[in-house]
Specification:
It contains twelve helices and 18 strands. The protein has 366 residues and is α/β, with parallel strands linked by helices. The protein has two domains: 3-139, Cytidine Deaminase, domain 2 (3-Layer(aba) Sandwich), CATH 3.40.140; 149-365, Dihydrofolate Reductase, subunit A (3-Layer(aba) Sandwich), CATH 3.40.430. Helix 3 runs parallel beside helix 4 (114-121). It is globular, with a radius of gyration of 22 Å.
Length: 366
């Protein structure tokens, strides 16, 4: 096997490790590291929950003295700044690593080439460009938060063949089958937070937790509710001390209701208004400031339409069931105000597959 193929193979391994930290490493990126000496893996690691220890220090600890003279494959440029922990670039140098392979420089201005420069100055060979496309896709949420100050948004819609999410009477459980619902729980696990609107929180009383996947770290549960009009006896309220609940509210939310939610353990995030609704860009900026990189939006229709209209949806995941509910059924999206096709938000198809009796289709923003 050529050296380039070996590099790609080890980087693919490092990326698979990095995926283990997705949804748990924020506000830090989810990074993987594999240490190889004489063709043998001697250490590996990934970012710990909460963002530290970093992947490199985890892998170095596993490798011990075997790291001396080895190559480190890292899915992002090693950090070069002193935060709560020393720089990973220094740790690699001190451990005797002689070569570092990474896809590209870190977009974080605190790093951005400084890690590679420190390694090179210490005589460590640095190679970049390995599996850069795959790594860029993996780190998209972290990079978007750095560039635009907001998390990457995935919007999930589960609907009938004719785009309805409930009958005229509001019955919606269950349009899609158990296999599709299991996949949705897996998608929640790949995000830092699950976001819904107040209407969905009131109508469905959702738990918004990951179930059926064993003991896993739960995502933050975020509700967009201008007036904090989510029942204080809801599942979210009853479990706010066990799994984080953040509520994004407007300046006109009643003070008494604010105190009640804070007393239950929820975190309140004040957001400005745009017309009569929470400003969607400001809402996501607040979530970005709080450290979130990946948000999984599960509706409802009004919130989904607002995010789409504002150009704030980066990926669509649809689950389509083989039944029709007709025009009297409730649509999956609220009004978009689209008069011409050219004004409609467009996405490109990246995946489609059968999930049980339903079809899953995934689209990304052009």
């Amino acid at each position: 096997m050529s050296s380039a193929s070996l590099d790609a193979r080890h980087m693919a391994h490092a990326l698979s490790l990095a995926r283990r930290a997705v949804g748990r490493s924020w506000p830090n990126p989810s990074v993987g590291c594999v240490i190889v000496r004489d063709g043998r893996i001697v250490g590996r690691g990934w970012t710990a929950p909460g963002g530290r220890p970093h992947a490199e220090t985890q892998a170095l600890a596993a490798a011990g003295e075997a790291a001396r003279g080895a190559t480190a494959y890292v899915t992002l440029e090693p950090c070069a700044h002193h935060g709560l922990t020393p720089p990973c670039a220094d740790a690699l140098i001190d451990a005797g690593i002689v070569r570092v392979v990474a896809p590209f420089t870190d977009h974080d201005p605190r790093v951005s080439g400084r890690g590679f420069a420190r390694l090179s100055a210490a005589g460590v060979a640095v190679q970049t460009g390995v599996m850069a496309d795959k790594a860029a896709e993996h780190h998209a949420g972290f990079f978007l938060r750095l560039a635009e100050g907001r998390p990457r948004v995935t919007l999930k819609l589960a609907s009938s063949f004719d785009g309805r999410i409930a009958t005229a009477t509001g019955e919606s459980r269950w349009i899609t089958g158990p296999e599709a619902r299991a996949v949705v729980h897996g998608l929640r696990a790949r995000h830092d937070a699950v976001l819904v609107g107040a209407g969905t929180a009131r109508a469905d009383d959702p738990a918004l937790t990951i179930r059926g996947w064993g003991a896993v770290d739960q995502p933050v549960r975020v509700v967009a509710s201008r007036l904090l009009d989510v029942p204080l006896l809801s599942q979210l309220a009853r479990t706010a001390r066990d799994v984080p609940v953040w509520i994004c509210h407007g300046p006109d939310a009643p003070a008494e209701t604010r105190r009640a939610w804070e007393g239950l353990g929820a975190r309140l995030i004040a957001c400005p208004l745009s017309g009569r609704q929470l400003d969607p860009r400001a809402l996501l900026s607040r979530l970005g400031e709080a450290g979130l990189c990946q948000v999984f939006c599960e509706g409802g229709g009004t919130l989904a339409a607002t995010l789409l209209s504002a150009g704030l949806v980066d990926e669509l995941v649809g689950f389509t069931a083989g039944l029709a509910l007709g025009a009297e059924g409730q649509p999956s999206l609220g009004a978009l105000g689209v008069d011409r096709l050219a004004e409609a938000p467009r996405f490109r198809l990246v995946e489609t597959r059968a999930v049980g009796a339903d079809v899953m289709h995934r689209w990304q923003r052009n």
